[in-house]
Each structure stands twice: as structure tokens, then as C-alpha cells.
Write a structure and sequence with these properties.
single chain, about 475 residues, mainly alpha, globular
């Protein structure tokens, strides 16, 4: 395994060198956060695919399927595929035409500076939690390959991804996404072919599974609302994430943004079915694993020779690196561009880039702490998708497509969505806390916006009445 570890280290160093090289082309905040708004359809599609195809797909989804059967694939790849396609078909062109730098800019354009700041405080933590999921998965891969304790491996992983992200910016992220995406596809296909041979073919392996393990919508005990909850979190909770919005805003045209999301989503589905298949096969080939999230690395160790295991480990690391740098950049973009730079009234572009890099460092440290204390990768991913997103989703829908509602209705909705999720999930332990928070957010916006409109009408009538009295 020493030779395998050396191969992994070499692969990581090459990724770091690419990031440092691309950093030489960064001259402004737009270059660092949006790659100069230059992405075409090809690079955009690969970047969308590679960014979303992270730890939760390779490590988390395969482990979930291994543990729960096909119903464990609800979030990945099916839910997130719909999320990416929905962004392309519904939101991408409208967001691009707004000439934004981050999603939070929309809250400033449509509502107020206070609502923008509130939105940042809700969105940025989700990116850090998502980064933490990737760091934890990176630690799982290093631990599996090197024999290190998981906590030590997570610490090593955190240092690597923080340094990698600080230098590169979105331009390096996109360039390495192309290489990482290709390495990922090759590594997963290689493992799939060898595991299928060992298992006698997919037909034989699936025939050995219980019918309940092949149930797509869970067990018979799962209610319709609980099933809807499982789908709503990845779709409504992630479609407007800063990581995805950044790819849209970095595209060279609205059409390029739309097509990149749709094509990236379809590629995500095609490749995402491989970890699902491996999770199902792993039930028969490696039953009784204490750590279900180790199923992919364990299959690779068992069925791949050293050289091909290095290829596969590189593929897993590709998936993780391409996601974690996007998540840390997203948090940095929101906190630096929308909070620190306006507060300090900074005009110099070099200073803006420096602040963004420092916030990447701070965000990475927080992500490391979360990765150490989280029980599972899937736990972090679910929390990242659901925390505060019900209010964000609702406010963006109304703010982007209508003139209904103002700053007060937006603020109440953001607060109501967040508080309802926290209470429903962490205090009351509701079966469907996200659906409840989404419903409360929608109702809050409509009711408060109607009140705002009625109050504005009363004030208008009062002004008219006062004018008539003066005329008399």
C-alpha cells in the first residue's frame, strides 16, 4: 500500500501545481470568483458535473445503497440530477442576465442591503457544511489507502484542500474539473467492470437481492410525504446553491449557462449510476461492513491491482477536490464580496482577491472542525441542503420572477424558513421538517407581501385624501 499512497500523493501534488499555475492569471475579483465570465458549454458542463459529483455520490451514495438498497439513491444521483436540469431549464438564463457576482447580489438588487446580509448568513454555512462532507470523505479515502486513523487522515485532507483552493480560484477549479472529471469516469468504469466480473454479472448479483432492497421509494413503512421530503431536499435545497449559481454566472452567455447545467446534469446521472450499481453489488460481495461508506474503497482494494487502485483512488480524490474547492470558494465569495468588501469599502482588486483567499482559509478551518465531529458524510450533505434553503428558495422565486413582495416579506420568510427547519428537525424531530419549513416560508411570504401591499394602498389613499382636503 506504500506505493499506492505515493501515487495518491503525486496525484494531489499535480492538482496543487495546476491551481498555483492558474492563479497567475488572476488579476481581479471577477477572475478569482467567476473565471472572468468566460466559460463555454463544454467546460461549463464538465465543471457542473465534476462539482456536483463529490463525496456524497462516490462515498455517501454507494454506502447508502449498500445499507438501504436502491432507495438509498434518492438524493444521489436522481435528486441532484433533477436539481441541475431544473437550474438549466428555469433559472440559469434569468440569473445570468442580472449581471450578478453571487446569488446574494440578487437580494440586494431586488430587496435591500439588510436582506442581502441576512441571505449570506444563511447560504454561506451550507457551503461550509458541504465542504466538510468532502473533507471527511477525503479522509476516508486516505485512511483506506494508507492505514492512517480517520481523524489524522481528515486533518491531512483539510490542509491539502485549503491550500489548493486558496491559490486557484474558479479558473483553476474549472480547468482541473475537466481533468478530474475524465479521471473520475475512467476510475469508476474500471472498478465496475472488474466487480461485475467477480460477481458473475449484474443480473446474477441483483437476482440475489431481496425485493425490498430494490424498492426505489423505500420500504412500505415510508409515507408519501416522507418520500416527497427525500426528493425536495436535494432539488429545492440545492438548485440555488452558490456553487451552482457561480457556474451559471461564469458562463459567457445565458444560452451557454442553460446548456451547461442541462448537459452537466445528464452526465451526472449517467456516471452517478455506477456507484449505485457498485453499492448493490457490494451487498453480495462484501456483506457485513462496519462502515458502509467504505464500500467503494474496499471493493477497489479487493479487486484492483496497485496501479489501477492508484487510478481509482485518484478518481475519488478528483471527485472530492472538484467539489470541496467549489464549496469553499462559494463561502468565500458570499462572505468577502457581499459582507467584508462593502463593509470596509475596498476598491482595489488585489485587496479583494486577498480577502477572498483569507476567507477560504477560515472557511476551510471551520469545515475541518465539522468533518471531525460529523458522524456520516450523508448527514453533512442533508444538513447543507436543508439549512435555511426553504426561505432562500421561496424568496428567490418571487424576487426573480415577480415584483410581488418587498424587503420585509423577504426577511420574515428567510427567518421563518430557517427557524421552522431547526425546530422541526432538531427539536421536534418531525418526519418531514423540510416540507414543513418550505410550506411555512411560502405562506409567510404571501401573507406578509399581501399585508405590505394593503398597507401601501392605505398610505396611498391617505395621501390622496390629504391632497383633496388641501384642494378644498
Amino acid at each position: 500500500m506504500n506505493s499506492v499512497l505515493v501515487g495518491i500523493v503525486v496525484y494531489i501534488l499535480l492538482q496543487l501545481l495546476v491551481g498555483v499555475y492558474c492563479s497567475r492569471k488572476i488579476a481581479s475579483e471577477s477572475d478569482y470568483l467567476l473565471a472572468g465570465r468566460s466559460l463555454g458549454v463544454g467546460m461549463g458542463s464538465l465543471s457542473v458535473f465534476a462539482t456536483w459529483f463529490g463525496a456524497e455520490t462516490c462515498i455517501g451514495a454507494a454506502g447508502s445503497v449498500y445499507e438501504n438498497g436502491l432507495s438509498g439513491a434518492t438524493v444521489d444521483p436522481f435528486g441532484y440530477t433533477l436539481c441541475l436540469v431544473l437550474m438549466g431549464l428555469v433559472f440559469a438564463a434569468h440569473l445570468w442576465r442580472r449581471n450578478l457576482t453571487t446569488l446574494a447580489d440578487l437580494f440586494l438588487q431586488r430587496y435591500s442591503a439588510g436582506i442581502q446580509s441576512f441571505a449570506v448568513l444563511l447560504i454561506a454555512p451550507t457551503s461550509i457544511m458541504w465542504a466538510a462532507a468532502q473533507v471527511r470523505a477525503f479522509g476516508q479515502v486516505l485512511s483506506s489507502a494508507s492505514g492512517l486513523e480517520v481523524d489524522i487522515a481528515i486533518a491531512v485532507a483539510a490542509v491539502v484542500v485549503i491550500v489548493y483552493t486558496m491559490y486557484g480560484g474558479l479558473l483553476a477549479d474549472v480547468v482541473t474539473d475537466a481533468v478530474q472529471g475524465i479521471a473520475l469516469i475512467i476510475g469508476l468504469l474500471l472498478l465496475l467492470v472488474l466487480v461485475l466480473e467477480a460477481g458473475g454479472g449484474i443480473d446474477v448479483a441483483i437476482a440475489r437481492l431481496d425485493a425490498e432492497q430494490l424498492g426505489f421509494f423505500g420500504t412500505s413503512e415510508t409515507s408519501g410525504l416522507e418520500t416527497l421530503e427525500q426528493w425536495a431536499i436535494p432539488i429545492c435545497g440545492s438548485v440555488l446553491s452558490q456553487e451552482l449559481v457561480a457556474r451559471v454566472l461564469a458562463s459567457r452567455s445565458p444560452e451557454a449557462a442553460r446548456r451547461a447545467c442541462v448537459y452537466g446534469g445528464l452526465l451526472y446521472l449517467a456516471v452517478g449510476l455506477i456507484p449505485v450499481t457498485l453499492g448493490l453489488l457490494g451487498m453480495q460481495l462484501l456483506p457485513g461492513l462496519n462502515e458502509p461508506e467504505q464500500i467503494l474503497p474496499t471493493l477497489a482494494q479487493k479487486y484492483l491491482h496497485s496501479f489501477f487502485y492508484v487510478v481509482f483512488a485518484g478518481a475519488l480524490i478528483s471527485a472530492i477536490l472538484s467539489t470541496v474547492d467549489s464549496a469553499l470558494l462559494a463561502a468565500s465569495a458570499l462572505l468577502s464580496h457581499n459582507l467584508v468588501v462593502p463593509l470596509m469599502r475596498i476598491q482595489d482588486e488585489a485587496a479583494k482577491v486577498k480577502i477572498a483567499r483569507m476567507i477560504v482559509l477560515a472557511s476551510g478551518i471551520v469545515a475541518f472542525a465539522l468533518a471531525l465531529n460529523a458522524g456520516r458524510v450523508y448527514t453533512l450533505v442533508e444538513e447543507a441542503s436543508a439549512f435555511g434553503s426553504a426561505g432562500i428558495f421561496t424568496v428567490v422565486i418571487f424576487g426573480l420572477f415577480t415584483s410581488f413582495g418587498g424587503a420585509f416579506s423577504a426577511g420574515v420568510t428567510l427567518a421563518a424558513g430557517m427557524l421552522t427547519w431547526i425546530i422541526g428537525h432538531h427539536v421536534l424531530d418531525l418526519a418531514t421538517p423540510y416540507l414543513v419549513s418550505l410550506s411555512v416560508a411560502l405562506a409567510s411570504y404571501i401573507l406578509v407581501a399581501c399585508w405590505e401591499r394593503a398597507r401601501a394602498g392605505e398610505m396611498k389613499l391617505g395621501l390622496i385624501a390629504a391632497w383633496l382636503r388641501e384642494e378644498r
